[in-house]
Amino acid sequence: MSFIAGRLSAIAPAETMEMAAKAAVLRRQGLDVISLSQGEPDFDTPEHIQQAALRAMRDGKTRYTEAAGVLPLREAVAAKMQADHGLAYGPDDISVTAGAKQAIFNAFLATLNPGDEVVVPAPCWVSYPEIVKLTGGTPIVVECPREAGFKLTPAQLEASITPRTKWLMLNSPSNPTGAVYSRAELGALGDVLRRHPQVWVLTDDIYGKLVYGSEPFANILQVLAELQPRTLVVNGVSKVYCMTGWRIGYAAGPRELIKAMNLVQGQSTNNANAIAQFAAVEALTGDQSCIDTFRFAFRERRDFIVDALRKVPGLEVDLPDGAFYAYVSCRALMGRQTPSGQTLSSDREFVPYLLDEAQVGVVSGTGFLHSPYFRVSYAAGIAQLGEAARRIARAVEALR
Ligand code: PLP
Questions:
Q1: What is the DSSP annotation of 26-79?
Q2: What predicted TM-score, i.e. pTM, was given to this entire model?
Q3: What residue's CA is closest to ligand 1, atom 7?
Q4: Which option is the CATH number for 65-285: 3.30.930.10, 3.40.640.10, 3.30.565.60, 3.10.20.310?
Q5: What is the pLDDT of residues 370-397, one digit of tens each?
Q6: What's the gap in Å between 61 CA and the centre of ligand 1?
């Protein structure tokens, strides 16, 4: 019998991180690899946030904090919830975590009993189903095709709910597709949820500030406030303030759930990094103009990469409304042969081919539970994106 616990047997490693690691190995071998696989901005953390961290260190804010997070940060999150979404939360309704990922983990560990189901619309972020499995639940993956904008329909939601359903995961703008739910779409999903009062909603708003379409971002609570007693809002500073390595996320929700999440955290990491928490206070309360700068840059890059990839015969991609990802269909390339004689039968074969042949790292749709696609992260400079698109085009052209 293996020494490793049985609960890990069905857990897949994050494909996004695996691809980034493979690209790093090739780079160390001296190859000129362009990695568009990592879900993180290429910008530095803004200077005023870095300075806040230095001040925190010098002021001795280097000790354990409350499991829930330092009060100034929870107050800042509460103020942001009010200002951005018109949602009322007090500091005791907020839990600060080591990244949004840990907020999701804590919420599921605190609530899922064996056999409890979580509805996960796919394509979805690689970690959702794995976190559900790790914490003892059962992910119910619902495939949302490109024709439906990669979004869950009310009929699909209705059909996926059973007496064991505990949570619905919503992620808008979405990783990996960039799809953004409109207020009308959220309202229609809310109508279904009204009929199923046992189902809670976890809305992952981490890309909420990175929306490029005409309709501004809204989460389901802004459309249907009555869901607040059974909704957990998850967010963080990683993506919007370019702070992925600082590891600060947070969740706002009903106090009983937040308390249970704090209990989990108190017996695991204890608290998110103290210095990073004070840096996050500055991120949320300081100068916000950096967000516009980043959003403008991402929008320009989105237009550029989508245009470039659409010119490659065999690839198809829709203009994403948010986040910094494009989800590209490579369906037309299936069945073609690589110069070394391999017949491509899935995105899982096409993506390594791109890395070996073109030295471009992307992530296969298999990891996001919707194939045959691949995800391009366009959080990279225009020059790099241009070179990546040229290489992808050459690699596709070389297929027979
Ligand atoms: N949620 C989504 C949809 C993501 O794409 C990511 C990161 O890729 C996270 C959450 C995790 O964010 P954090 O770095 O704050 O843990």
A1: HHHTT---EE----S-SSPPPHHHHHHHHHHHHTT--S---TT--HHHHHHHHH
A2: 0.96
A3: 39
A4: 3.40.640.10
A5: 999 999 999 999 999 999 999 999 999 9
A6: 26
